[in-house]
Every structure is written in structure tokens, then in C-alpha cells.
Amino acid sequence: MCDSTNATPRDAAESAPRPVEGEAVDPISLLPVDEIRITTLVDNAFDALLTSDQRATRTGFGPADTPAGQFETGHTSVGLMAEHGFSALVTVRRGERETRLLFDAGLSPTAMVSNADRLEIDLTTIHGVVLSHGHFDHAGGLAGLAGRLGRNKMPMVLHPEVWTRRRLLAPDGGYEMPTLSRRALTGEGFDVIERRQPSLLLNGSVLITGEIDRTTDFEHGMPAQHQAWTGAEWRHDPLVIDDQALVVHLRGQGLVVLTGCGHAGVVNILRHAQRLTSVDRVHAVIGGLHLSGPAFEPVIAPTVAALTELAPQLIAPGHCTGWRAQHTLAAALPDAWMPSSSGTTYRLIST
Which residues does the annotated region (Disordered) include (predicted)? Predict the structure, then answer.
């Protein structure tokens, strides 16, 4: 449960990254790649006025081909869909060979596939699916993906606790979250691969962290309102133990880390990735950091202090990061921070 007190500069200093004693029990030999492209298929925001630069290609309004009778031509232009969810297409290149993974699928059955269509991305060309965790705003688009793939077998890597029943309490009673069904996924053609431990995908060039070590003293996880069903009763579920991240080693640059919600805490995630791979340098951090809302606002200051010390060249927080954290990160890391938006492609190239 998160402490509701305000973080102080001293708290931030005491919470700065520090080495974890010892080496990983099973160190990962993560092969460097020459290029990585991460396309945000679904995020909480879409901004058609963002401009592209050498690091990111933005998507604006599309052609005026959507039927709308109130216009003289009978058509209008639309942008991409934004919703409270996250999905990203990850493309890695080693030499001349490119491979693709889908990381999460967004909230609704339609947003991810609709945005992929508008971006002219053929989802049948992906080589596998990774789920960051079992929350429904990262898995709802699997229904739309299954419709595109048909009965073709598609490997899906996930943590075995994604099937956990969960609920959120609130003064009005709250609600039980939709729970993933293993039977339904396998029935739709997904080849479900459950892993608690780290996994190497795409011939050793992509690392899925598995369960993440919790080593910071400020990333406490979800508040008491987040609960899981044990089979006999509802209990506080602070850890969301199925939370995992995707890690790529960009040759000559360092680690590129993609999170879904970052429930383990982004500093915990980055330290875990460094320890697993023995790569100290963090080049880029992209995805949700779950720093939104009163329960997480005390975590913002020490998190930003830790990220400032790690000095990534790119940080593009999205989804559940929250506006207070976004403003703080933008002020602390103005050269690295970039606003996230559905339809953005981050292109990172080795040196």
C-alpha cells in the first residue's frame, strides 16, 4: 500500500538507485540488435498536431475517406483511436533480418486493429504476442487480433498469474475486473506459454523479464483497494506479480525497456533488467509508469530522481503515468522526455 505522505528531497536522495548485491543467478545473454522500432498502437491520448523528429514519427489526421454526410464531399478525416489502454508493436532488426512482436492489445476489441489498419500495419506478420500482465485494459484487443489471425497458431508469452480474478474497491462499491480465460485464448488459436522466469524471444534478441525483483524502498505497488480472489476470499493485491517488461539491447547504446503499466515500479524494472543482462546503460524507457492518482503521487519525486540519475536518452511515458508525473519528468529530463500518442513510432538505431 502506498504511503500518502509527501516525498521530500531527502526521501528522493535515499531512494536513488543503488547496486543490488551479487549477480543474477541466471544471467541472460541478450544479443544486441541494430535497430528497434516501437509503434504505439493504443495509448490514452492521440495528438494529431505532434511533429516528427529523428527519434519519433508521429501520425496526424488521415485522408478524408470516412463517410460523414454533413460535409459537402460526404466524407471527413479522422485520427487514431485513444482509450485507457496500451498496445505496442515492437520490430527488431539484426543485420538484414526483422522480426515483430505485439506487446499488449489495448482495452477494446476494436481500437488496436483499427489503428493498425490506419497505420497500414499487417498484424498477420507478427511473430508472437507478449502480455505485460492480466489487467483488461491490456488484453481487450486480443479479440480483434484473433479475428485477424483466424485459426493460425500464434505464440503468446504471459505470466501464469494473468488468470487471477481482481477487483477495485471504491466508495460506490467498485467493480470486478474482466478476467482473462485461458480456454478462450487457446480456443481462438493462441499458443499460450506461461513463464514466471525470464524468457528470450526472437532468437535471443528480446528479453521478457518474468517476475521482477522489488528492491526499492518507495515503489510499494497498488493500494488496498486493488484486491485479488484467493479462491476463498478477497485480499489486497499490491504486487500484481504477473507484471513484466520487454527489454532489448541496442548495440552501442544500452537497454531499451518497454512497460505496460510498470506495476513493479519502473526503477525496480530497470534495475532488474540491468542485473539480468549485465548491461548498465539504459538508453530508452517507453510505456506506462503507473504514477497517476493520489496513492502514487508520493512516488513521483523518488522515481524521477532515480530516472534522472540513470539518464536515458529517451523517455516516453504513456498510459497510466499521469499528468503530474508527466510534468515532473518533462521538467527534470527535458531533452529525453517525449509525449506519447497513439500512432507514434520510436526508431532507435545502434551506433
Answer: 1-23
The CATH number linked to 323 is 3.60.15.10
Predicted structure pTM score: 0.92
Q: What are phi and psi of 271, to 5 degrees?
A: -60, -40
13 by DSSP, 3-state: which? helix
> Which residues touch 149 (CB under 8 Å, ≥6 apart)?
123, 124, 189
Residue 4 belongs to a domain: no
pLDDT above 70 covers a percentage of the chain that reads 93
Tell me the per-residue pLDDT of 267-318, one tens digit each, with 9 for 90 and over. Answer: 999 999 999 999 999 999 999 999 999 999 999 999 999 999 999 999 999 9
How far, in whole angstroms, is CA 120 from its chain's centroid? 22
Spatial neighbors of 21 by CB under 8 A, at least 6 apart, are none
Domain count along the chain: 1
Residue 158, by phi and psi: left (phi above 0), alpha (psi -120 to 50) or beta? beta
Please report where in the chains the cell 551479487 appears, as a residue: 22
Residue 276 is inside which H or E element, if any? helix 266-277
Cell 476463498 identifies what position?
A: 232
Q: Which three cell numbers stand for residue 301?
A: 519525486
Given a contact cutoff of 8 angstroms between Cβ atoms, the answer to whether 191 and 155 are in contact is yes
Domain containing 176 equals 35-49+81-349
Quick: pLDDT tens for 219-262.
999 999 999 999 999 999 999 999 999 999 999 999 999 999 99
In the chain, % helix, strand, coil (3-state, to 5) comes to 20, 25, 55
